[in-house]
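Wed. Picked up where I left off yesterday with TRPV5 protein. The coffee machine is broken again, so keeping this brief.
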Amino acid sequence: GNTVLHILVLQPNKTFACHMYSLILSYDKNKEGPGSLELIPNNEGLTPFKLAGVEGNTVMFQYLMQKRKQNLWSFGPLTTVLYDITEIDSWAEAQSFLELIVSTKKREARQILDLTPVKELVSLKWNMYGRPYFCFLALFYILYMVCFTMCCVYRPLKPRTGNKTSSRDNTVYVQKMLQESYVAYEDELRLVGELITVIGAVVILVLEIPDILRVGAAKYFGQTILGGPFHIIVITYACMILVTMVMRLTSTTGEVVPMSFALVLGWCNVMYFARGFQMLGPFTIMIQKMIFGDLMRFCWLMAVVILGFASAFYIIFQTENPENLGQFYNYPMSLFTTFELFLTIIDGPANYDVDLPFMYSVVYFAFAIIATLLMLNLLIAMMGDTHWRVAHEQDELWRAQVVATTVMLERKLPRCLWPRSGICGREFGLGDRWYLRIEDRVEPNKHKMMRYTEVFKAQDRDNYDKGSEKLETSGETLCKKELSALSLSRSTSRASSHHGWEILRRNT
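Structure written out below (tokens, as returned):
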């Protein structure tokens, strides 16, 4: 029976699936207990209710929610309803319904976030606890990055004592040894900041690694809504901090490499906190789509073009004096110069006091046509197309990011700082299940229409029941007479009911 329920959730015919679902549950002996068919999960740990959310079956989801709601009271256009949020709320769920929705790749599933009571539950959690905690976390992270930046700016350096080995050598300061790095009072202040930086990196790894093991690396880093790119950035940043610490303790030169990477990654991760603001959140989604979609594909083409033309430029200037044209004096510098030329950061290097090789003009002409005119305009066109596609769903993606952030904060924070949302069913004699109270206000005209609709439905139903009773009690000899009378009464009632429905349509 449980397998059939899961199959019905996946049926394309939603109306048929809902009727069959209700029919199967009518034969269930344990309707409310732990052995109920609705509470038995499949091999993936999904109950029929959670499966409807993952598959984006909004019709089945609303049908199941209507079965779970309890009308508390109704007065005129006001109605108070208790919605069962036991499986929806992520507070006590190992496999959260909200997390399943935002982590699925189906766009239809995100439409459930706009349905009652999911929309009201998310809004309650975000406004009461999610937004304040997230803003505090953003402020704390910015202060932490300021502390790390100051430690890097005032890192221990000393004047260089050795002689220069080349005219292009421009180094005047070198890194201090460990014994010389913490001597003065200013060094002790910097040591406090460095300890805070290292502790913060360790805390980041401690918080991130359990989620990677629980969700899986592919889903954790691959989902934009879950913050996948930013998780990669922050974990790499923490690793760079630990590498810098090891190099400092062992007095290894070259700590500027992991330190500079950590500065760039740490400050770029500040964009993660833009998802908490409606004005900035959609822009971060756009940036992620462009960087990890269009730009990643474009970088492969750009790398091939730069590699080919940089090699050509290096070969052309290999026999020339590097003092007159230093942009291509060795192969790494040729790669960097060609990259700058590709992005039109600099103009083509030329020294009119000396004769330039003829092949330089030919190669540079081809490079300008391919790189500047063709490939850069291709990148702009690709980004414009991505912007047009993402703009239609950026608000929907941003709301999904808010849900993912709320679930993340609810898992990380202690229970004392994040109490459970909703009302326990024991207060209304509904058991240990948790409910969310929602007040629905119907406009007066709409409320009047609904009353008319109920009256017309009841009239049709009563006429049908009366006709059925007459048909059952009539004998075989009077079958034709009763049947004709019944058809006449039905046509009369049908005409009056039809007239009432016409009035209702015109008013609507």
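Quick read: The domain at 288-410 is CATH 1.10.287 (Helix Hairpins).
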